[in-house]
């Protein structure tokens, strides 16, 4: 919602402006303050937390264990905070982020209810001007886009929605008031991670739940449980080493290790494979697809893990027809972010839950009473849209970003995103993107990737200030080489085979580009460190 302009119409000037007060923006503010820079965060919400502020839907929780999905930059903070569960729920994560904001006194430099609509670079002055929806202007030498990869939810545009007589919600912009599903007929549209987390919880209360599924997804059990005090104590006693292992790992967290991880799934016999998959399934979480070393590169190997999950679905879901509908067959397992669930498949055994296959009978539109497909009309009281995000590029492109000479990011990225390291964009000096396309970001424990970017950017800015550099800009040659590298790494895997949001396939007309860097967070960290050690190789620095 647009805020009234504040009384002063004067342009306010800072050393640095950060857009976004999620995990990225908050830590960025903390680091830039420590450098003595005057810094302001602009945030469209009325509170901190980003993802965990917006996604308050029932069942929302992290898919990385909380001992890992938490900041590592402050040893004191690590010791002070104790998570109640293996995978904390949204409210607890939001409470944690608020605690961090208070503990480091961050709020005084955050302007809430402030949506940035444009960011323009001025070549002569070598500074950025950011304009807000309410018409204010802020100027700074540095502009840090901490917008998040999943902060631009897809707005439902089903014909007829405006005439629906009931309530409707979207998971990515959930209201702050409680939604009461008791005694209500409910429809959930979408079966990605958000749908899969919310469906079992809504089903417990609803009179009847209709799940509208277009494409089934692979989901593995979380086996969530109260935090084990002995484990917490063990991790806290050696947190620094634990975090360091995460930082140098492939995905930013450690999966259960076994000798099979060094082998191909096709090297071992089927009994060994089953045993390995069962062990990981029973442990819960993402470990399943780390069972062998070629599950992400060899279709035949991948099919063994996919078949294992298919069998689990057939085992859990009592109605064989429903089970077959829930089995994903259109993409290799792991090439869309795995969903980590609590009782997802078992929910379809409930009498009050129906699965509607909208691949076979697509949604035609919304009627005053509910949802109409090509086959039937489903009367409901509440509609829940869990239909995803314009991921990675969406939050950036929703802002009118113009770089050197007035070039528009929307034009420069018309064929898909191009960045150097996922941190900088040629033609857009002194602008940094936290977890931008071309970095591991969404393929990782994101907080690890966020901290690495924030630390790299703040060290870069410190260097620029010490060396009195007026302007830093990625060179086109370095950017081209980086884009080639990211593409080549992606092509060596099975990821591009999936119609996922990683390739923009969920947004009509979005160029199909595999956006994340797939080489692993440890390797990526080294590559970024080398660039810095070489005096910011691949960047042009102007004093
Ligand atoms: P965000 O948290 O998205 O924050 C960006 C902020 O920028 C938002 O507050 C937004 O309001 C603000 N903003 C955007 N545009 C503008 C603008 N134009 N003007 C002003 N403000 C703006 N990752 C994991 O690793 N593990 C998980 O378990 C996990 N679970 C997730 C669950 C959900 C439901 C979703 C959607 C994502 C999840 N993620 C998870 C990814 C998650 O987004 C990151 O882990 C992390 O929270 C991102 O932090 P961020 O600060 O970079 O971005
Ligand atoms: P998503 O994975 O993109 O899933 C969106 C779902 O909506 C898909 O099933 C999609 O079907 C369906 N859909 C979209 N438009 C539709 C239409 N017009 N008609 C019918 N169905 C439609 O989005 P998400 O579930 O919000 O998850 C996005 C990402 O956020 C996740 O991959 C994950 O990284 C993160 N996340 C994490 C967690 C967690 O476990 N901690 C929870 C939520 C989100 P199609 O596949 O057919 O397009």
Give an account of the 3D structure.
With 543 residues, the protein is an alpha/beta fold. The chain folds into 2 domains: 11-152 and 391-542, FAD/NAD(P)-binding domain (3-Layer(bba) Sandwich); 161-385, no CATH class. The protein contains 15 helices and 20 strands. The chain has helices at residues 23-34, 51-54, 75-80, 90-103, 193-205, 229-237, 239-247, 270-283, 299-316, 320-326, 394-397, 409-412, 446-466, 476-491, 521-533; strands at residues 12-19, 39-42, 110-111, 116-122, 127-132, 137-145, 167-170, 185-189, 208-213, 219-221, 339-341, 353-357, 363-366, 370-373, 377-379, 382-385, 400-402, 431-433, 471-474, 539-542. The strands form 5 sheets. Strands 1, 2, 3, 4, 5, 6, 17 and 18 form an 8-stranded mixed β-sheet that branches. A 5-stranded parallel β-sheet has the order 7-16-8-9-12, with helices on one face. The chain has a 3-stranded antiparallel β-sheet with strand order 13-14-15, with no helix packed on it. α1 (23-34) runs parallel beside α13 (446-466). The radius of gyration is 23 Å and the shape is globular. It starts with 11 loop residues before the first strand and ends with a strand. Mean pLDDT is 97; it is low at 1-7. Bound molecules: flavin-adenine dinucleotide and NADP nicotinamide-adenine-dinucleotide phosphate (NAP). NADP nicotinamide-adenine-dinucleotide phosphate binds at residues 62-63, 150, 171, 189-195, 197, 212, 214-215, 337, 340, 358, 363, 386-389, 442, 501, 506.
């Amino acid at each position: 919602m647009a805020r009234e302009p504040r009384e002063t119409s004067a342009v306010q000037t800072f050393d640095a402006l950060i857009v976004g007060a999620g995990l990225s923006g908050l830590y960025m503010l903390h680091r830039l303050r420590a450098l003595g820079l005057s810094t302001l965060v602009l945030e469209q919400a009325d509170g901190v937390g980003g993802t965990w502020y917006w996604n308050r839907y029932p069942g929302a929780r992290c898919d990385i264990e909380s001992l890992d999905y938490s900041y590592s930059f402050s040893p004191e903070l690590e010791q002070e905070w104790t998570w109640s569960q293996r995978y904390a729920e949204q409210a607890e994560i939001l409470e944690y982020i608020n605690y961090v904001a208070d503990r480091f006194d961050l709020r005084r430099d955050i302007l809430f209810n402030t949506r940035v609509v444009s960011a323009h670079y001025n070549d002569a002055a070598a500074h950025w001007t950011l304009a807000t929806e309410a018409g204010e202007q802020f100027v700074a030498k540095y502009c840090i886009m901490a917008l998040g990869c999943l902060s631009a939810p897809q707005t439902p545009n089903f014909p007829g929605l405006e005439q629906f007589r009931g309530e409707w919600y979207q998971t990515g912009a959930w209201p702050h008031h409680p939604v009461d599903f008791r005694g209500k007929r409910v429809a959930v549209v979408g079966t990605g991670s958000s749908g899969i987390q919310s469906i079992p919880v809504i089903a417990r209360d609803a009179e009847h739940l209709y799940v509208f599924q277009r494409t089934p997804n692979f989901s593995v059990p979380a086996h969530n449980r109260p935090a084990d005090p002995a484990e917490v104590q063990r991790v806290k006693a050696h947190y620094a080493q634990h975090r360091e292992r995460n930082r140098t790992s492939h995905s930013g967290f450690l999966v259960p290790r076994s000798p099979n991880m060094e082998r191909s799934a096709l090297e071992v016999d089927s009994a060994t494979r089953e045993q390995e998959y069962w062990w990981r399934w029973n442990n819960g979480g993402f470990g399943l697809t780390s069972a062998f070393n070629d599950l992400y590169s060899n279709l035949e190997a991948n099919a063994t893990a996919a078949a294992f999950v298919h069998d689990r679905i057939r085992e859990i879901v009592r109605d064989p027809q429903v089970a077959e509908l829930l089995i994903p067959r259109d993409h290799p397992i792991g090439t869309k972010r795995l969903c980590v669930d609590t009782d997802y498949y078992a929910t379809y055994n409930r009498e009050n839950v129906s699965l509607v296959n909208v691949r076979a009978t697509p949604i035609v539109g919304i009627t005053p009473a509910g949802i109409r497909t090509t086959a039937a009309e489903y009367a409901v009281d509440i509609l829940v849209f869990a239909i995803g995000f314009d991921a990675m590029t969406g939050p950036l492109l929703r802002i009118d970003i113009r770089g050197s000479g007035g070039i528009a990011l929307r034009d420069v990225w018309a064929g898909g995103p191009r960045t150097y390291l996922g941190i900088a964009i040629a033609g857009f000096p002194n602008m940094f993107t936290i977890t931008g396309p071309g970095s591991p970001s969404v393929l990782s424990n994101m907080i690890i990737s966020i901290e690495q970017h924030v630390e790299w950017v703040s060290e870069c800015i410190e260097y620029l200030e010490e060396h009195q550099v007026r302007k830093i800009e990625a060179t086109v040659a370095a950017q081209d080489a980086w884009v080639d590298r990211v593409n080549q790494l992606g092509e060596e895997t099975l990821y591009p085979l999936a119609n996922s949001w990683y390739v923009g396939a969920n947004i009509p007309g979005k160029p199909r580009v595999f956006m994340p860097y797939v080489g692993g967070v440890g390797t990526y960290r080294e590559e970024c460190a080398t660039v810095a050690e070489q005096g910011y190789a691949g960047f042009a620095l102007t004093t």
